[in-house]
Each structure stands twice: as structure tokens, then as C-alpha cells.
Design a protein that fits this description.
The protein is globular and about 45 Å long. The protein has about 240 residues and is an alpha/beta fold. It has helices spanning about 15-25, 40-45, 70-75, 85-90, 95-105, 120-125, 130-140, 145-150, 175-190, 210, 230-240, and strands at about 5, 30-35, 50, 80, 110-115, 150-155, 195-200, 220.
């Protein structure tokens, strides 16, 4: 059984969120990361395990607009995405912020989903492993082993993430398997820890059956398809 995580980003309004819950089967083995305002609704009305899309580096208190790890845990959140390429690009998240977020989540028992991946230029230069390795090392070197053992890594090549406008382009199965193996070997050799590695980047109804043949891949972090009920039902049927 693959790990299925839906990152719904900011695609849905309240009506769309309620329709998605009604039109999808739901499963506690599937994780949905909705927009912050919808977390309680998913906890109360859906059959999904609930994650968050981000967390504050702060502990709470006088930090207007922030949502801290303790608040997420109190709502029943079990997982949280950290370091998604959109946050790295739009909000210039630093290495120090990523370390702090992962640490805060681990302290309250929330499992971090740590995103890594190369852009198109880096892909063309054939330095994917250099980029991915650096993104892991510059964070993991500052974490306790107990924390490292809790993290799920999502390999999301930035150039493969659908923007809803351009046709999806994803790595080949061989490329995904190769990077996944590299990540697992790196974490094992450097930190003496095992790790679950997911693939993310334009996973959808059309390619999921082919992706499912990659035995070393532990699952998927799904973006756009995670807000399309019929498509997400199909993916769940093939993996849960």
C-alpha cells in the first residue's frame, strides 16, 4: 500500500471543500493537507487523516497570523508539509526556518513531510542528486536522530509540478527510482536511519498506474489532482 498525501494548496473555496468531502470516499490511510481554515472541517466531517501545509517557526503567543505546531496538534493534525518549493520560492524560506519547523513539529508528535527537488536548469545540468543531497544535508545535519527517523521525504522536481496551465512533464520511472534510491542510501549511510520517500509532481489519473510500478517509491504527494474528486478516488482505489 502506497502513502497517499493530498496537498490541496489554496485551490478550494468552502463550497468546493465540502463538495470534495461528499464526493470522495475518504480513508484513514490517506492524508489530506487542506488550507488552514478547513482543517477542523476535515477532522470532524471526513474520513481522512489530516495534515497541514505549513507551520510557524514560533511557539505561539503574540505572533499575529501565525499557526504554531501546538495549535495544529490540538486540532488533530498528524502530518505537516515543510519546505515545499512554492514556499521556498514565494516566501524565501531559509535553511534555519526549515530546521526550526521540523523541530517544532516533532516536539508535538506531528510527522514532517520534507520536500526536496531540482528546478529545470538544474535538471538540464544533470545535478539533480547534488541539489537534492544538499537540501537534505543542510537540514538533517542540525537535527537529532530521533527527529530524522520521523520525517517523510517528498521528492518533487520543481519543473514537474503542474501549474494548472501547462501540460504536465514528469521524470521517467527510471529517473524517479534512481533519485529515490539515492535519497534512501544517503539518509541510511549518513544518519543511520531509514526513510520513506514519496514522489510528487503532476501525479494524476493518467500516470498513476505507471508510477505504481516503481516499487522503491513509497507513495505520492499529490497537488492539483487532490482537489478533483473523481480523479482522487481513482488514485485511492489503485493504492489503498
Amino acid at each position: 500500500m502506497k502513502i497517499i498525501i493530498g496537498n490541496q494548496k489554496a485551490y478550494l473555496d468552502a463550497e468546493g471543500m465540502n463538495n470534495f468531502i461528499k464526493e470522495t470516499k475518504g480513508d484513514k490511510n490517506v492524508i489530506i493537507c487542506p488550507s488552514f481554515p478547513y482543517i477542523s472541517t476535515y477532522v470532524e466531517k471526513s474520513n481522512y487523516t489530516v495534515g497541514a501545509q505549513d507551520v510557524s517557526t514560533r511557539d505561539g503567543g503574540a505572533t499575529t497570523g501565525e499557526i504554531c505546531a501546538k495549535q495544529l496538534a490540538s486540532l488533530g493534525v498528524k502530518y505537516c508539509i515543510v519546505g515545499h518549493s512554492e514556499r521556498r520560492a514565494f516566501f524565501k524560506e531559509s535553511r534555519e526556518e526549515l530546521i526550526e519547523k521540523i523541530t517544532k513539529l516533532s516536539e508535538v508528535g506531528i510527522i514532517p513531510i520534507f520536500c526536496v527537488g531540482e528546478n529545470r536548469e538544474e535538471k538540464d545540468e544533470d545535478i539533480t542528486k547534488d541539489v537534492v543531497g544538499r537540501e537534505i544535508l543542510q537540514v538533517y545535519d542540525y537535527l537529532e536522530k530521533e527527529t530524522i527517523e520521523k520525517i517523510i521525504i517528498a521528492y518533487e522536481p520543481i519543473w514537474a509540478i503542474s501549474d494548472g496551465k501547462n501540460p504536465a512533464r514528469i521524470p521517467t520511472n527510471v529517473e524517479i527510482a534512481d533519485v529515490t534510491a539515492y535519497i534512501k542510501d544517503l539518509v541510511s549511510e549518513k544518519y543511520n536511519a531509514s526513510v520513506k520517500v514519496l514522489y510528487g509532481g503532476s501525479v494524476n489519473k493518467k500516470n498513476v498506474d505507471e508510477l505504481n510500478t516503481i516499487s522503491i517509491c513509497d507513495g505520492y504527494l499529490i497537488g492539483g489532482a487532490s482537489v478533483k474528486a473523481e480523479e482522487f478516488n481513482y488514485i485511492m482505489e489503485r493504492n489503498v
